[in-house]
Amino acid sequence: MHDQHGDSAIPNAGSDTQQNATPDPATTRKSFLKGAAVAGAGAAGLGALGPAAALANGRHRHDRHGHGKPKPGGLTHGDVEILKAAQIAEALAVTTYTNIINTAPFFKNLESDDQGYLKAAVQEEMSHYLLEESLTKQPTPFTMFYYPPKMFTDAQTTLNILVTLEDAFIAAYLVGVREFSTPDLRVTAARIMGIESDHRTLARVVGPGVAGKDGGPIEQITGIQKTAESVDPPNNNGYERTLLLKNIGQAVEALLPFAEKKAAEKAGFDTTKAYKFEPFTPTLPSALGEFHSLQG
């Protein structure tokens, strides 16, 4: 299992809000989990982050394949837990990419193809979020996120955190591949995971293209495993990294500093402001790569 990381990446232009203007929904892991459960309760909701609560109690309430009583629409409780955690992750991703594009000084000095990658990524992450929302029938229970100092002002910090997040997203969707209750959901998790893998690689492609006046070229990027890795080659995985995650609760642990103030403070994040997730209707780069159905 990976250790808690102190990195975070995720902005949203013009949407940063002073923390005292938005009451924090939770101050402990327990209240964080309770807040998610309350916000997600409903047709499919109960317990967006239930597995993390179970981990805190030293147990896990569901078998390794997410079986149990299916909820309306054919989802098991375990399926819903994974999907709700994924919604929070995708909301975080959208917020990150949006703020990189709109507020990070280095972005405007990138080559047009590197800018295009980041612009396409935010559309793809938003599409993932909406797909998951269509399955749970509930919005993400958390819409305000925290980040480390210099998240959007220092290109090295931005790319370190961006790769850290993509590392976590890849591992989380691999949990879905292992734990979802149906082949259709497992294949859908694999399809999304493949796009997150693209994003990780392309974030590493961007590094050498960072202008000198923005601290570039960036030749090493540090991801969730806290090891500085050369960006040459950018696609440096023979196999995707599972980070030894065994259940979605472990993935949720990595999200705590981004969504919960006490955890953010402990991780050294800037808690003087929170960045708001602002949903939109995405336009994917190619019709051939759009989502058509759970059956593919």
Explained architecture:
By secondary structure, the chain is mainly alpha-helical. The protein has one domain (16-281). It has helices at residues 29-40, 50-56, 77-103, 112-136, 155-179, 183-206, 248-259, 261-266; strands at 16-18, 144-147, 220-222, 228-230, 270-276. It has a 3-stranded antiparallel sheet with strand order 1-5-2. A two-stranded antiparallel sheet has the order 3-4. Strand 3 and strand 4 form a beta hairpin. Helix 2 (50-56) crosses helix 7 (248-259), helix 3 runs antiparallel to helix 5 and helix 4 (112-136) packs antiparallel against helix 6 (183-206). It is globular, with a radius of gyration of 18 Å. It starts with 15 loop residues before the first strand and ends in a 20-residue tail after the last strand. Mean pLDDT is 81; it is low at 1-67.
**Count of individual helical segments:** 8
Low-confidence stretches: 1-67
Q: Please give the alpha-carbon distance between the first and last residues.
A: 32 Å
Structural class: mainly alpha
Main sheet makeup: 3 strands, antiparallel
Order of helices and strands: EHHHHEHHEEHHE
Provide the domain count. 1
Fraction of helical residues: 40-55%
Q: If you average the pLDDT, what whole number results? A: 81
User: How is the largest sheet built, in terms of strand order?
Assistant: 1-5-2
| Beta-strand content | 5-15%
Give the overall shape, derived from the CA principal axes: globular
What Rg do the Cα atoms give? 18 Å
Number of strands: 5
